[in-house]
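Proteins fold. Shown next:

***
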Amino acid sequence: MRKLVPFLFVVAALITIVGCSKETPLSSDSSMQSATIEARTPGRAHASLMAEYEVVIENLTPNNGNGASQPFSPPILATHALTFHIFQEGKYASDELRQVAEDAVGGPMVTMLSTSPFVNDVAEGSGVILPGQSASFMIKARVGFRKLSLVAMLVNTNDGFVGLDGLRLPVSGSQTYYLDAYDAGTEKNTEMKAHIPGPCCGNPGVRVPTHEKIDTHDGIEGVGDLDPAVWGWKEPTAKLTITLNSIG
């Protein structure tokens, strides 16, 4: 029995050390803080908490009048699970994204998101966001569904859109981000008025289809009818401010 006492003492000490180590903060980074908070809280109780965020989207493209340069179509936002994507750079666009990027048709995208078990909440704009203007949205998230994505067409392009793919929402306060424009890869960038739906052109539903992967947008290059000085823009395309309003 004497030989067992030191051994039991060592085991008890190890259990104490391991137990203490689980309470040690992992990092000061906000995403790591979030992971720690979620791990410490009982699953069902914490999962029932819903956080509400205000998301402000500002159009940073040049404000040079008459619908120029690039108004945003009504944005579509979603909070969702880690493995879910509305789009991914380097991947092919879904048909729902194609319709947004080519003609600002958001209905199919909203329906897809609203019926997905991997999506927590969906918000949709009620109007365009003109250059130099902004719009505010309220959206909810909870544990397991704390990623934010959004898309909005650059309406004076063939299939350009401003997008956000799976941003981890802040756990407190406000955070500001800058977004670039993407090319959906579903329509050739003819820059011809006959193929573009926006104020520059007024021709929705007319396209020269392509099948390319989503990539960063090259902007208006002057290969067709559109003057880059009027319809062009520089990155970043949009400013995004996200504020945690409440948890309950």
In short: Residues 138 and 148 are 12 Å apart (CA to CA). Residues 1-45 have pLDDT under 50 and may be disordered.
